[in-house]
Amino acid sequence: MHGQAESQHQLGRRRLLSSLLLGGSIVPVAAGLLRAPEARAAQQPAQGAVQGVAQGGGTPTTGVNGDQGYESAGSFEIVADFYGPGPSGVVVTDEGRIFVGFPRHAVNHKGATLGELVQGRVVPWPTAALSLPSSAAPADRLMSIHGMTMDTQGRIWAIDDGKLAGQPLQPGAAKLVCFEPSTGRLVHKIVLKAPALLPDSHMNDLRVELTHGQAGTAYVTDSSFGHSPALVVVDIASGQQRRVLATHPSTQAEPGFMAVVEGVPLVYTPGKPPRFVVGGADGITLSPKSDRLFYAPLTSRRLYSLPTALLADPTVTEAALAAAVKDEGEKGTADGLATDAQGRIYTTNFEQDSILRRNTDGSFDLMVHDPRILSPDGIFCTKTHVYCTLGQWNRLASFNGGQDKRKPPYHLIRFPIEPVAAYNAEEKI
Q1: Is 38 left (phi over 0), alpha (psi -120 to 50) or beta?
Q2: If you ran DSSP here, which 8-state letter would residue 123 be given?
Q3: Rounded CA gap, 410 and 24, in Å?
Q4: Which residues on adjacent β-strands are paired with residue 322?
Q5: pLDDT for position 70
């Protein structure tokens, strides 16, 4: 802890957290335009994107039942506002360059599916030919960039889920791609194929470690557009792909799961149209040494983990993998997961419009909580900050009886890993 001010800050977070551990979307408009409200127009650009500061803070108002999670908590910056397609994956380089994915599986938009934030605009990246819609074969262009990450060599990896809204998954569309950020060069492209890929696959997010295999190993969560979730393990050097834990409880959506989203209690019933975002294995993150993989189904409050030494070994049986799965306990209703250098896991919470931190001892801190944090999705840790995209996925027409309830702008936010100590003008130097 960094002094009394920080101790009080953490205490407030923990009090708020007690009420939170029990919750995005896309606009089919030309992609790329970022705009800040006039009230924030005077703010200086941050890392190439329009920025504003949103303070959630002070002492929360106490609710009628003593609920101290009644108002906003923590503070965060709005790094960018998106008035076009909704954002999902995000990566931030050590130099401060920001890359964002805009998937097309919910709305087949005409904007960039992968872009860099440059001087307040989304620039198609690495090239317009790859990122914008075209007549090129699905294997030769980016179709629908979803989850994103960075390996220990500083290369950008993304999962192209390959899905265009209203269309079947095309051969060659679902793939892993790796780019060198300094040049935009495509370093790796691995097309996903059967039996690792199913017709209803929703390749959602990924993490890559370079400690197993000749060129490393990629781990992908298939949350499934149907009822067939799993983990997919990809050897980068050979392109070998394996679908694992396809029937294990740790990858499955929980039947009867109830979530309270924007104040409305909603229940997931298999076989019925979902009224909120549901799915199997979704959030995924690695330990700092890449020796353990953490993952979680979207429709669940549990967190699970596995040793990567077992997961990366194709000779390990399915039974041995299942026996090695560790139930890490509850973590709230999460989409994206991320790990900092200290091994603490940041977990989004779409029920309570918040982002939590799971400490290495299993305790939790509330980092930020605000009504604007709707459907927190892709999340990424730098050395100093946590970045998260807010896409309003729960407001899609498909979850609301055909009525599109999304209200742009969608946001990219960030907050410091360590809270800034309060400033006391009366304190003696």
Answers
A1: alpha
A2: E
A3: 8
A4: none
A5: 57
The DSSP secondary structure of 298-351, one letter per residue, reads SS-SEEEEEEHHHHT-TTS-HHHHHHH-EEEEE--S-S-EEE-TTSPEEEEETT
- Yes or no: say if 355 and 337 are a contact pair by the CB < 8 Å rule: no
> Class assignment of domain 77-416?
mainly beta
For CA atoms 336, 342, 343, 345, the dihedral sign is negative
Find out whether 284 and 230 touch, Cβ atoms under 8 Å. no
pLDDT confidence bin for 210, thresholds 50/70/90: very high
Q: Tens of pLDDT along 287-300?
A: 999 999 999 999 99
Residues 331 and 347 sit within 8 Å (Cβ to Cβ) = yes
**Spatial separation of the C-alpha atoms in residues 282 and 212, rounded to whole Å:** 22
Pair of tokens at residue 301: 């409050």
Give me 16's structure tokens: 């708020």
**Looking at the predicted structure, is the pLDDT value of residue 266 above 50?**
yes
Residue-level pLDDT at 120: 84
Q: Give the pTM.
A: 0.85
Strand order in the sheet with 156-160: 145-150, 156-160, 175-180, 185-191
pLDDT in tens, 54-113: 444 444 444 444 444 557 889 999 999 999 999 999 999 999 999 999 999 999 999 999
